[in-house]
Design a protein that fits this description.
This protein has two domains: 30-278, Trypsin-like serine proteases (Thrombin, subunit H); 301-316 and 324-593, Thrombin, subunit H (Beta Barrel), CATH 2.40.10. It is 13% helix and 29% strand. The protein contains nine helices and 33 strands. Helix 1 (2-23) packs across helix 4 (226-232) and helix 7 (499-505) packs across helix 8 (507-513). The protein is elongated and about 80 Å long. The relative contact order is 0.11.
Length: 598
């Protein structure tokens, strides 16, 4: 009886608060809600496109994704999104103590959710008590955050402990489908309520501020009767989308857009789903593809980046020969590769340490591409040794080289760079190696000969879609099939891959390191690959009679190789695609930093 009176009193108080909020609505600043922007559909995997294998199933009893966090002083509730991660929208005090004092917190799942104070909840294998290992805030709105918690790996049990799915539709597909939404809440046992979505203006109330106006188009506004509005205002409430028999997490309650008459506001999680996945283990998502940059038009002869660039000695001396020249022969790859033709790639540069200059049998550690008389493009990571940026005097750049055992020939030119220009956003401590591009400049440029000639910078559309399945050429003295560097310059084919194909080839790796607009994939998965020592070299594509530089060899998946002396060396994985720095993203920066390209 006492509990009934308490509940009735509580509902009365909340109803009064709701009425007061309605009466003060007119005092709030008014703002116009902009048209809702249609966002891309999140893509996790082929098939049902689920964020986690077999996620989102619920037999109607106790939701298997519900979790409780308790640190001895405070508790809050959330949902399980993988076997190592949960989401909450209201754990401010636990988060503060975790960050400030390192105070540990325990997550309770399954049968331990309700009986978290009793040790026997874990005895039957249907309850878990796991420790929090890390936590991250994510801004959903200016004044609304969610928390992604990393926990010890949970042993999943169907219908008892299992993740909910993250949203897998874009907002044009699920917006205003009245029959597809419901609210999930644990304040009352197993509470769910199907709801109707309204326009965001219906959730404006006296608590919103002018700074919130640009974000109202990310509010999912639910229409409810007052009984349910009062209920869901209390604790962990989430907006779920249901389709194909599965439940998907679509939104979290937004206190500032809460009680307004019979409506309740939820922050749409679609705009931040990539941020959520980036902090989640065991869940991978296709990276976002940014808008294609506007193509830069060069002012040189024939609109090329440098006069007569992109032609080799054979082409310059035999302009009447048809397109079926030596470049069209079928090739394999640098691992198990073929020897390049002499003077066939006169723009390819070798980069090595200056102290090795008079030691002819030493190999360079990276490659590069001559793009003008005074500039060689390479990968920024090539200019670091053990995390320390090399000095320009420590390097020597050689062009016209074919056989590393024959270094002193009139056709070979070697120079010490006068300046090293790295992209300002490159971080040598980041595993992602974003913006992996650098320019080596020479005050006294190279003499242009049959053996030393620049390649053209890419001057066509920067969209990767326009060159998918195009055959590029890469060259280098990197590791061969025996994982030793080649003496003779090797040459190989490499096919440009779509971002989707790249991602699906190895979601765990490319879901993390593929950054469309920054890099792209090329290569094969059947044992073909560039390898150690080839970094910094260019991916060249032939258009008509001209060779263009489209990418810079950056990095790829690796494997551990045990040498005969017992040492373990990290080497390339020849059954995986490689990542290339996308020059389309950096063309303006290149032109601004190279004095003889316009």
């Amino acid at each position: 009886m006492t509990s009934s009176y308490f509940r009735a009193a509580l509902l009365l108080i909340l109803a009064i608060i709701s009425l007061l909020s309605e009466s003060t609505l007119s005092d709030a600043p008014q703002c116009k809600v902009s048209e809702r922007k249609i966002l891309p559909t999140p893509f996790y995997n082929e098939g049902e496109n689920l964020s986690f294998t077999n996620c989102g199933l619920w037999n109607g009893s106790k939701p298997p994704w519900r979790v409780r966090i308790f640190n001895g002083s405070f508790r809050c509730k959330g949902v399980l999104i993988s076997n190592t991660n949960i989401i909450t929208h209201d754990c401010i005090k636990i988060m503060a103590e975790f960050e400030r004092d390192g105070k540990n917190a325990t997550v309770y799942l399954g049968n331990c959710y309700e009986n978290y104070r009793y040790a026997n909840c874990i005895k039957d294998g249907k309850g878990l008590a796991l420790q929090v290992k890390a936590a991250v805030r994510i801004d959903v709105q200016p004044r609304n955050k969610i928390y992604v918690w990393t926990i010890e790996k949970a042993k999943l049990v169907e219908n008892v402990i299992y993740p909910i799915c993250l949203i897998n539709q874009n907002n044009s597909e699920y917006m205003y489908r009245n029959e597809s939404f419901l609210i999930y809440n644990d304040f009352w046992p197993n509470f769910t309520k199907r709801i109707e979505l309204m326009t965001a203006e219906n959730c404006m109330n006296s608590w919103y501020q002018e700074e919130d106006c640009p974000f109202f188009n990310h509010i999912l506004c639910a229409s409810l009767d007052k009984y349910y509005v009062n209920d869901i205002s209390q604790t962990g409430d989430y907006l779920l989308n249901i389709h194909s028999g599965r439940y998907f997490l679509s939104g979290v309650t937004h206190r500032q857009y809460g009680l307004q008459g019979r409506s309740h506001g939820f922050s749409d999680l679609l705009p931040v789903v990539h941020k959520i996945v980036s902090q989640t283990k065991g869940v991978w998502i296709m990276p976002e593809i940014p808008p294609v940059k506007k193509r830069r038009k060069f002012r040189g002869q024939n609109r090329e980046s440098f006069p007569n660039c992109g032609t080799n000695n054979l082409r310059r001396s035999r302009r009447d020969i048809d397109e079926s020249d030596e470049d069209e022969e079928p090739l394999s790859f640098i691992v198990h590769g073929f020897e390049a033709s002499f003077e066939g790639q006169p723009w390819h540069a070798e980069i090595r340490y200056n102290y090795q200059y008079y030691t002819p049998y030493f190999h360079g550690f990276c490659g590069g591409s001559l793009i003008s008389r005074k500039a060689v493009l390479t990968a920024a990571h090539c200019l670091y040794n053990a995390g320390i940026l090399l000095e320009k005097d420590e390097l020597v750049v050689t062009l016209g080289l074919y056989d590393v055992k024959v270094r002193f020939s009139p056709s070979i030119q070697s120079k010490i760079p006068s300046n090293l220009t790295l992209h300002p956003d490159f971080d040598p401590n980041s595993l992602a190696q974003e913006h992996d591009i650098a320019i080596l400049l020479f005050d006294l440029g190279f003499e242009l000969t049959n053996s030393v000639w620049p390649i053209c910078l890419w001057g066509r559309s920067y969209s990767i879609d326009t060159i998918v399945n195009a055959r590029g050429i890469m060259v280098g003295w990197g590791y061969n099939e025996k994982y030793v560097q080649s003496d003779i310059l090797q040459r190989a084919n490499s096919l440009v891959r779509s971002h989707r194909e790249c991602y699906l080839s190895r979601r765990q790796f490319f879901g993390t390191y593929l950054k469309p607009g920054v890099n792209f994939c090329a290569g094969f998965t059947n044992g073909t690959s560039s390898c150690n020592g080839d970094s910094g070299g260019g991916l060249a594509l032939k258009m008509g009679r001209i060779w263009y530089l489209r990418g810079i060899e950056s990095f790829g998946r690796g494997l551990d190789l045990k040498r005969e002396n017992g040492e373990i060396e990290r080497v390339c994985n020849p059954k995986s695609y490689s990542l290339y720095t996308d020059l389309g993203n950096y063309m303006d920066w290149i032109v601004e930093n190279v004095p003889d390209i316009h």
